[in-house]
Structures are given as C-alpha cells and as structure tokens.
Design brief:
Layout: E1 2-8, H1 18-32, E2 39-43, E3 46-50, H2 57-64, E4 70-80, H3 83-90, E5 99-106, H4 115-129, E6 134-135, E7 142-148, E8 153-157, E9 161-162, E10 174-178, H5 184-194, E11 198-205, H6 212-229, E12 232-238, H7 240-249, H8 255-274, E13 279-280, H9 293-300, E14 308-309, H10 317-326, H11 330-333, H12 355-362, H13 367-376, E15 379-383
Parallel strand pairs: 5-6, 5-7, 10-11, 10-13, 11-12, 13-14
Antiparallel strand pairs: 1-3, 1-4, 2-3, 4-8, 4-9, 7-8, 12-15
Length: about 375
C-alpha cells in the first residue's frame, strides 16, 4: 500500500507542551487536506497518511509541504514485515547507473535478521538487479530506507522531502499584519505564520489618491498568503483624511514619521478591539528613511501594550525577494501600484527623527479623533484559504 510518512522536527523539544503542539498540528494537517480522501494514523511514533487515491498523491504532498511544524515527509510503500515481501518491494527501486546505500531500522526485534545483515542482503539484491549500480556508504546518489516497525509493518522509501519546519499554526496566538501592496509585508506575514502565529491583516488606502486596483492587489496578496496562514480577516482602513490633515498642518519632512505613528496607533487599537497579540510589519533595517533605528523608535513609541514584530529586520532585499518568489507573492507584489506611503511623499524625509520632534508636530493635528475616525470606517473582508 502506498502511504506518506510524516516527520516533525522542533515539536520534540516542547516537553509538556508536546500534546498541545501535536494536536494542533494534526488539526492543521486535516484542515489543509480538506476535500481529499485519506486516513491519518499515528503508528508507533510515526504519522502515516494512507487510503488516498494514488493520483492524488502529488497534490497531497504539495499541500503538506505548506503545513508549518512538518519537518519532512516521504512517499513510501507499506508492506508486512516479512523478509521476502520486503525484498520484492526493494527490487522495484531503480538504482541503475547509480551509487546507493541501504538503511535498515529495526524497531521490531522479533524480525529474524539484524539490521546490519539485512542491509547487506538488500544491498546485494540491488546490485544483482541494477546494471552499473554500486554501493557508496558516504555519499550515495540513492538512499534506500527500510523501517521495520512494531506493528509488524515495514516502510520502504527512497525520498525525504523537506517541508516548512517551524511551529504549527495557532500555537503562537494571533497577530495583526500591516499589509501594504509591496514585497516585504507578505513575506513578514509568512515568516510569523511559520513560527505558529495566525494572522489578521490591516491595510491603509488613500482613495481617491490610491486606486481601487491598489486595494484589489492587497486582497490578492492576502489571499495568496492564506495558503500558508489559513483564513485571514483583512481590515481595510481609509487613511485619506489623516494624510490630508498631516499634509496641511505638519512640516513636510515629518509627513512619513507622523503617518506611521498614526498607523501604529490604529493598529494597536485594532489589536485591542479584536484581541490580537502583536503588530507585524515588513520593515528592514536601513532599507528606507522610515526604517532607520531612530525612525522605528519614534513610530514604535506610540504602541504601549503590544510587541511589534519585524521578522524582515535583518534581511537583505534579495533574500526577502527570494522568499516572496517561493511563497508566490512576488509577481503580484511587483505589479505597479500606488501605496498610501507614496502619496504626498516629501522630498527630504527626516532620517533621524526624535520622539520630541514628532510630538511637537502632532500638536497641530487632532490625533485622537483621526484615529477614532479610522476605526469607525473600518471595512472587513473575510478571505478564505485558497485551495
Ligand atoms: P512593503 O514592501 O511591505 O510595502 P516597504 O519596503 O515598501 O515595505 P514601507 O512602505 O516603508 O516599506 O512600509 C514598511 C511597512 O509598513 C510595510 O512592510 C508594512 O508592514 C507597513 N505598511 C506600509 N504601507 C502600508 C499600508 N498602506 N497599509 C498597511 N501597512 C503598510
Ligand atoms: Mg511599501
């Protein structure tokens, strides 16, 4: 019978939390495979997926590769743990013109041959049946694994496919991702989800300065992210009035600083309202004027009760782009669009603002009522996971 073996990595480290992590992982696997027919079983320390239609195997593996907390998987054949039965399966593996190594693990000590001897027997069998094959114990091209388990079953496989790793989604609470239409923030969301954090997203638009398409693009990005994060509730907030007010009343070089301080205040209020535990942004140190240490100090200082996570902070743009390609958000992110941050953009934004300076500028606007207004007109879009 064809099966898929699943392995989880870091979960083993979690001591008494392990049950919670495992049950969350299982729930997530089941939800990721919704619509597929399959059986998921725990047999002697291993998770095994079986009873699926063979032609669905590729699709199922693709889906499992998006489940955080899974470390690797192997498509395998499950047979009764009998010497001849195992041999007849091993013979089918194609090792022609390749070097190989056989790994035998014998959890079931009632199996009549020791692991070492059986590996040797199987090695000879493969040599006899594959032209130009050779044994290489140190750097084989082909690794053939035979796991003999206590349930009197043996699993035979020759591929170990790397999965996402990380922690099961939901194990680290829920955060609010500040999602723009750019490259970085979707990557930031993905990285937090990989550490087990579920997400809601917040987008600021400046209609009519920014277009309806700019908003559609963000909906599309959120929707692409859901294949990793599960459903996302997207909060869309109009920033037009805020920007007009700052533009009218504050010094132009502080435009971005004050805007971002108001974004952060709105974000914290939304966290309170919807019970979200952290604010997440796509900022990267030194990337632009608003992402210097001083700028982040000044924008972060208005947030009192929540941590601000910036998972891209240490990353080069190239590395962020690589991840965005992997998670399939890149092509959408680079579509031309206007972000609200590009509206009323000053020529010379301050690079090293201070909190005092920012507070001075804010005397000329009514911060509290601007924030209130943002929250009053918040639009909610429920985005279901893409299958
Ligand atoms: P990104 O590629 O994520 O847009 P960026 O390099 O363009 O980032 P900024 O425009 O300075 O950088 O934005 C920094 C962070 O602020 C973004 O990563 C995002 O988390 C948040 N942000 C910026 N614009 C918006 C917006 N319109 N709505 C929500 N969050 C935003
Ligand atoms: Mg941006």
């Amino acid at each position: 019978m064809n099966v898929i073996l699943l392995r989880f990595g870091e979960l083993y480290l979690k001591g008494h939390n392990r049950n919670y992590f495992e049950s969350t992982l299982i729930k997530n696997i089941k939800s990721m495979l919704e619509g597929e027919e399959f059986k998921l079983e725990m047999t002697f320390g291993r998770y095994v997926i079986s009873n699926y239609a063979q032609e669905r195997q590729g699709k199922i593996i693709e889906k499992l590769k998006k489940v955080f907390g899974l470390y690797s998987l192997s498509p395998a054949v499950e047979v009764d743990a009998e010497v001849e039965t195992i041999k007849s399966e091993v013979v089918k593996i194609d090792c022609k013109n390749k070097s190989f190594k056989v790994f035998v693990k014998r959890a079931d000590k009632s199996f009549p041959i020791s692991s070492m001897d059986f590996a040797k027997d199987l090695g000879e069998l493969i040599l006899d049946n594959n032209e130009n094959s050779s044994v290489d114990l140190y750097n084989p091209q082909c690794e053939i694994h035979v796991d003999i388990r206590m349930n009197h079953k043996a699993y035979i496989f020759d591929k170990i496919i790397k999965c996402q790793g990380g922690l099961p989604l939901g194990c680290s609470g829920k955060g609010l991702l500040l999602l723009s239409g750019g490259i970085d923030s979707p990557v930031a969301g993905y990285l937090m989800a990989k550490r087990g954090m579920e997400l809601e997203a917040l987008h600021f638009h400046s209609y009519p300065y920014t277009s309806e398409q700019a908003k559609d693009k963000v909906v599309k990005l959120a929707s692409l992210l859901t294949s990793y994060t599960g459903d996302i509730r997207l909060h869309v907030v109009s920033f037009t009035r805020v920007q007009e007010e700052i533009h009218k009343r504050c010094r132009p070089e502080f435009m971005i600083t004050i805007m971002r301080r108001i974004m952060m205040r709105v974000a914290e209020r939304i966290c309170e309202k919807y019970n979200l535990g952290a604010i997440v942004t796509g900022e990267s140190l030194g990337q632009v004027a608003s992402q210097t240490m001083q700028s982040m100090t000044v924008t972060g200082s208005v947030v009192k009760e929540k941590p601000i996570f910036r998972p891209c902070i240490v990353m080069d743009k190239e590395d962020i782009i690589e991840i965005s390609r992997d998670i399939n958000t890149y092509d959408t992110s680079i579509l031309p669009y206007e972000d609200c941050c590009t509206v009323f953009l000053p020529k010379n934004p301050v690079i090293k603002p201070t909190i005092k300076q920012a507070e001075n500028e804010e005397q000329y606007i009514d911060v509290k009522s601007l924030v209130d207004e943002c929250l009053e007109k918040e639009e909610l879009i429920q985005i279901k996971r893409e299958q």
